[in-house]
Amino acid sequence: MSTHQPPMPQAPAAPEWRAAPGGPYPGYTSPIPVVRTHLGHALASEWTKIKSVRSTMWTLGVFVLLVAGIGLLAGALVSSNSDSESLSGENPLSFGFFGLLLGSICIITLGVLTTASEYGTGMIRTTMTACPSRARVLAAKSIVFFCVAFVVTLVTSGFVAMVQASMLESTAARTPTGGDWFKATVGVSLYIALLGLLSLLIGSVIRHSAGAITIMIGVLLAPLVLALFMATESLSKVREWLFEYSIPNQLSVFYANSLSESGPSGWDPLWIVIGLTAAVYAGAYALLRSRDV
Asked: pLDDT of 233-291, one tens digit each?
């Protein structure tokens, strides 16, 4: 009897892995396509984060309620209770100041939470692992937050300005010029968004939500409060400087209704906050590179 057996089927040959051109692992090519990451990927990641957390909806929701509610209430009260002579020469858009002053606390809070909350939860490790470039992470967070804060503030302040102008149209308040409209909407929105960006950077430096929020609220309100309590003549120059450069006074400049007769005017408050934010940005980036997560 023949003992001849049919030949055993041969196993398929193993794939011949070859190194990618310039790849660090000779003899191996990953079957997974490798895509070179860029800033767009980091922006998409930060946009997903900021729109998916509840703190964004709560802080921006309260901001809209404060700005619209207080602004429209102020316009209604002035329209119903003030006589025509008391509003002579008054910019009707200036009554949006009160709502934006309180609403800025919400933007400050959201700015701090955008960075500091990741340090509190430990998610910053995941962020830095996914994107080792710390400069790119900080830039993406700053761009996404600034755009969100600017758009929300612009839409809300523009709506309040239009309603207030229609409420006070029949009074003796002067008709706002194109420059008044631009400063009361785009100008003040840029200022508020930069103030929030400054808070984001402070949150990156402090890495503690409560501490950074406390510092920023102090920056917002402390100079004005201290100036009000400096009643002695020896502190008059310090009082005047604090009053002129306090954030509430700078915010009022955009409505051509400065709280003081001297100090910043025109677009000066915007240049001041741009310079301050740029300096803090440089410090935040230097610390982000030198410190561990």
From this structure: 888 888 888 888 889 889 988 887 666 667 778 889 999 999 999 999 999 999 998 88
**Would the CA dihedral through 164, 165, 169, 172 be positive or negative?**
positive
For the chain, the C-alpha Rg in angstroms (whole number) is 28
Q: How many other CB atoms sit within 10 Å of the CB of residue 224? A: 16
User: Residue ranges of the alpha helices (H) in 39-96?
Assistant: 39-52, 54-81
Distance in angstroms between the alpha carbons of the first and the last residue of the chain: 77
Q: 233: how many CB neighbours lie within 10 A of its CB?
A: 8
Per the CB < 8 A criterion, the answer to whether 254 and 183 are in contact is yes
For 42-83, how does the pLDDT look when each residue is reduced to its tens digit (9 = 90+)?
Answer: 999 999 999 998 889 999 999 999 999 998 888 788 777 655
Backbone angles phi, psi at 205, to 5 degrees: -75, -45
What are 186's two structure tokens? 């785009």
* Cα 220 to Cα 242: distance, rounded to the nearest angstrom: 11
